[in-house]
Amino acid sequence: MNETAAAARAGAALTIDLSALVANWRQLAARASASECAAVVKADAYGLGAESAARALAAAGCRTFFVATAGEGERIRAVAPRAIVYVLEGLPNGGARALAAARLRPVLASLEEIREWAAFGRAIGRRLPAALQFDTGMNRLGLSVRDAEAAATAAQDVDLTLTMSHFVCAQWAEDPRNARQIAAFEAARLSFPGVPASLCNSSGIFLGRKPHYDLLRPGYAIYGGNPTPGSPNPMRSVARLEAPVLATRRIEAGESVGYDGMWTATRPTRLATLGLGYGDGFPAAVAGPGRPAPEAIVAGRRCPIVGRVSMDFVMLDVTDVPEAAVYRGQTAELLGETIGVDELAERCGTIGYEILTRLGRRYERVYIGG
Ligand SMILES: *Cc1c(COP(=O)(O)O)cnc(C)c1O
After folding, report:
1. At 370, is the pLDDT very low, low, confident or very high (cuts 50, 70, 90)?
2. Of 6, 15, 154, 165, most Cβ neighbours within 10 A?
3. Cβ atoms 79, 99 nearer than 8 A
């Protein structure tokens, strides 16, 4: 059974191309060949499946992974037993024993966390590995640069394996904040001679060599997102979302489509109803002033989504596709090579990261290229 047949039979299907995912990771690694390339697999590998992604990346040579929570870390540990796994949320209050037992490394973000990790290490007689995160402009999580000396002192009983910070807007290469953040990170690093450093998310890798340091931390671009918005996407498409056409119908000009009658036909219109909706994680917020409607591809043609997205259904205007080319049981593509996550996100008034991470559990998931 090929993937398209699966979609027609079982409802909407999400196909995840692990060879494209690995190729993307390799491409990013090659852009900074002097640095190690890690992979950020938080939020279930941006919705695409943490175990499958981590297994494929580890087999390709990825040795370091970043997750958000200890629970996510344990899932990665199970499929990549020798990998280094950093937990971006840091050390939960009282969580040192569980993290150490799972051989996870917290990304410590405050003097309090450093002291707690150091104290637990002393209690079990081992200097435990951890990263230190400096906040250089996100104002989200991390030590202030002015606390770098105090952090170095507090971390004497910690095996510091990484210092890191995170870009606010690396996707805008010309933004002066990038250089300011690099300078602030440099200042923090002065207190940690010899400790490896990491600053680049996906977009940061494209800012040139200066911020590459020892370890890259891409996420989005591995999963096919465009790290250089405004320029062509250098990454391969990883996720393909397809849904079956459940029915077609004809309506007259003046008739509305879907809940609340948000869209009204201005001409005799042929509709195709697809079997997926916001209950699957497909964005509901599709109609927006001044935004072109999101589209799906049927019989090789782009067709606009019309009306509100329902929990289980999406309606397409297929008037311009030859009559015989659209029929019940056929497959429509909502995401893939042609309509990428960035385009879908823009047309839905959100970001590609959200599109990916919301991809629901109801789809049949098909992994290829593994
Ligand atoms: C999510 C995250 C990344 C990965 O960012 P992308 O833009 O997805 O490449 C890297 N570092 C930190 C601290 C993060 O939170």
Report:
1. confident
2. 165
3. no
CB atoms within 10 A of CB 81: 9
Question: Of 42, 46, 220, 223, which one is the catalytic site residue?
Answer: 42
Per cent of the chain over pLDDT 70 is 96
- Strands 84-87 vs 239-251: parallel, antiparallel or unpaired: unpaired
CA angle 21, 302, 14 (to 5 degrees): 35
210 is catalytic: no
Q: What is the pLDDT of residue 131?
A: 98
**CB of 117 sitting under 6 A from ligand 1:** no
Candidate from 21, 40, 233 with most ligand 1 atoms within 8 A of CB, to mutate = 40
SS3 category, 87: strand
Per-residue pLDDT at 4 exceeds 90: no
Closest CA to 163 of 115, 200, 196: 196
Q: In the chain, what is the straight-line distance between the N-terminal and C-terminal CA atoms, in Å? A: 17
Q: 202: Cβ below 6 Å to ligand 1?
A: yes
Centroid of ligand 1 to alpha carbon of 223 (angstroms): 12
Distance, CA of 39 to CA of 82 (rounded, Å): 15
Q: What would the mean pLDDT of 178-186 be, rounded to a whole number? A: 98
Instruction: For 83-125, write each residue's pLDDT tens digit.
Output: 999 999 999 999 999 999 999 999 999 999 999 999 999 999 9
- Is pLDDT at 5 greater than 60 in this prediction? no
Q: pLDDT value at position 7?
A: 44
Q: Considering only CA atoms, which residue is closest to atom 12 of ligand 1?
A: 166
CA distance 317 to 306: 6
* C-beta 220 within 6 A of ligand 1: yes
User: What domains, with CATH codes, occur in the chain?
Assistant: 31-223 (3.20.20.10), 239-368 (2.40.37.10)
Distance CA 244, CA 272 (A): 10
**Residue 288 confidence (pLDDT):** 64
With a 6 A CB cut-off, is 191 part of the ligand 1 pocket?
no
Q: 219 C-alpha to center of ligand 1: Å?
A: 6
